[in-house]
Amino acid sequence: MTRVTDIICVFRIQFAGTRREVGPFLLAAFVFPAAMYLFANAVAGVEVAPEQSRLRFLAGSIVFSLSLTSISWLGYLLLENRFTGRLKLFATLPLAPSSYVFGVLVFAIAQAAVSVTTLLVVGRALGVQMRPNFPLLIVVILLTILCLCGLGVVVAARARSFSQGSLLTDTLGAGLIFLAPVYYAPEVMPRALRVFAQLLPTTFAARAVQTTLAGGHAIGNELLALSVIAVATLALGFKLMKWRED
Amino acid sequence: MTATIESLSQMEVRRGTLAPAPPREIAVRVRDLIKVYRDGTEANRGISLEVRRGEVVAIVGPNGAGKTTFLRQLTTELRPTAGSVSVFGVDAVAEPERAKRAMGITPQEAGVFERLTVREHFELFARLKHLSKREAREAAREVIEELGLSAETNKNVGALSGGQRRRILIGLALLGRPPLLVLDEPTTGLDPSSRRAVWSVIRRAVAVGATVILSTHYMEEAERLSDRIGVIAAGRLIAFGTLDELLVRLDRSYRLSYRDPIDPSSDLKIRYCASFAQAQQHIARELLSEYSIARASLEDVYFNLTGEPFDKDEAEAIG
Ligand SMILES: Nc1ncnc2c1ncn2[C@@H]1O[C@H](COP(=O)(O)OP(=O)(O)O)[C@@H](O)[C@H]1O
Ligand SMILES: [Mg+2]
Questions:
Q1: Whose C-alpha lies nearest to ligand 1, atom 12?
Q2: Which of A36, A67, B136, B309 has a CA 20 to 30 Å removed from the CA of B39?
Q3: Residue B83 lies inside a defined structural domain of this protein
Q4: A244 vs B77: CB contact, 8 Å cut-off?
Q5: At B195, which helix (H) or strand (E)?
Q6: How many other β-carbons are positioned within 10 Å of the β-carbon of residue B17?
C-alpha cells in the first residue's frame, strides 16, 4: 500500500513538475509521429499506397511516438533528476529506487496513452482501414513501453554527464525506429542489417501493433519477445538504479 | 604541541573522575568508519563516535577534511569501505531504508523540484515519508511557518532565492519529526537572521526529543547550538567533546593578543597562555602596552588542532 502511494507521489511530483510543459510535450509526441506518417505515405505515393502500407505507416508512427516518450523524454527526465541533484533528495527518503522508477514510468505511460489515442483518431480520420483489437493493442503498447523505458533507465543510470546521456537517449529513441523495419518492409533492408533488426524491440512492437490494428491476434512470438526484452532491460535498469554510491 | 598532548592525558584522567556522564541511550554508533573513494582518496580514515539521544553534535573541520563523506555514510547515501554505522540500533549499512525511516536528512547539495510550489513540495515529500494526507498538510504548514516561508507558500520553488531554497531543504528534513536529523552545512549561504531562524527550528526539534548531527563552517553555530563538537581533519576525528572539554585539552586556555612594541605598525600577534597570570607575566616581561587577554574559544581550539584559522573568509563575509 505504501508502495502504491510512493509511486503515485513520484508520478505527481513529475507531473506537477512538467505541467507547464505538458502541452508541448504531448504535441511533440503526436506531431512528430503524425508528420512521419504523412511523410511515409507521400514517399510511398499516397494514391497508390495499398491499404497494407498505410496500416504499416500508422503502426510505425505509434511505435515512433512510444519510442520518443519512453526513451528520449523519460530518459531526459531521469537524467535531469540525476544531474540536478534531485535524485539526492529522493535518496534522503525511505523510498525504494524501484518505486521511483515506477512513478516515472506511470508518467511515461500516461503520456503514451494520450499520444497513441490521438494517432489512432487521426489515422481513422485520414481513412486508414483498421479493426483494432483494443485489449490486445493495450497489452502490446504496455509491453513496448516497458522495454523502451528499461533502456531509458539503463542509459540514465549509467551516463557520465547530462549531455552524454541525452545524446544517447535521443540517438536510441530515433535509431531504434529507423534501424528497424518500422516504416518499411524488412525485405528492403540490407541483409546484415536485417538480421540485426530482427532483434530490436521496435521490430517486434511494430509487427505486433500492425497485426492488432488489422484485427489479427497471431502475435504470440512478438509478445514473448517483448516480454523477455522488457524483463531483461528493466531488471538491468533496477539493478543499476540505486541510491547508494559505492 | 607535544606538551599539549602530554598534559592532555593527565587532564582527561582528572576530568574522568570528576564528571561521570549519566548513562543515556545511544542514538548513533559509528565504529572504525573508513571511506576510500574509487580514485583512491582516503576521505575517512577510521572514525568512531557515539551520539546520545537528544544530543546536538556539530562536526567541524577544514574544507576537504571528510565531513560530508562522514555524514553521507551515516545517511546511507555512500557505502562505507569498512566500519559500521548503527542508527537507533538499526544497521544502516545492511538496512538503509529502515535506517532512513528514523532520519531527516539535508544533504550539502541537492536539487529541488523547481516547478512545484513550496506547499506542494513539502506536502508531496511528507507523503513520501508516509504521513497521511491530513498529517502531510499539517506538517507542511508547520514547517513553512517555522522557517519563515509563509509569504512564499504558493510560489514556485524555482522563484526562490538561494537562502530560501536552502531552508526548503532543511524543512524537508524536518517533515514528520524524525528522531534523528543529519544536516550537512544547514546554514551555509544563509543571512544572519535566516541562520538564527534555522537555529531556533533545530532547538525546537531537540526540545521535543530529536537528536541532531550537523556539520558547520561557523564557530558560533557550533558553540551555540551543540552539546558536543567533533573536529575532523584529514579524515580523522582528532577531537570530540563539549566545548569545555576541548578547551581543557587545549591546555592554554587564555589568548593574549598584542602589538609588538618594537614594531607598532605590525599586525596583532597572538600567544596562548596556560593561565591568566602567565599572560600577565608575559605582558610585564615584554613591556607590552597594547594588548588584550581573553578566554580561549572554540576558534582557538580549532586553530591549535588543525593549524588553520576557522574559515576566515566565511567569518568575514558575515562580519
Ligand atoms: N565522490 C568523490 N570521489 C572522490 N573523492 C571525493 C569524492 N567526494 C569527496 N572526495 C574527496 O574526499 C575528501 C573529503 O571530502 P568531503 O567529505 O567533501 O570534505 P568536507 O565536507 O569536509 O569539505 C576531499 O579530498 C574530496 O576531494
Ligand atoms: Mg562538506
A1: B43
A2: B309
A3: yes
A4: yes
A5: helix B192-207
A6: 8
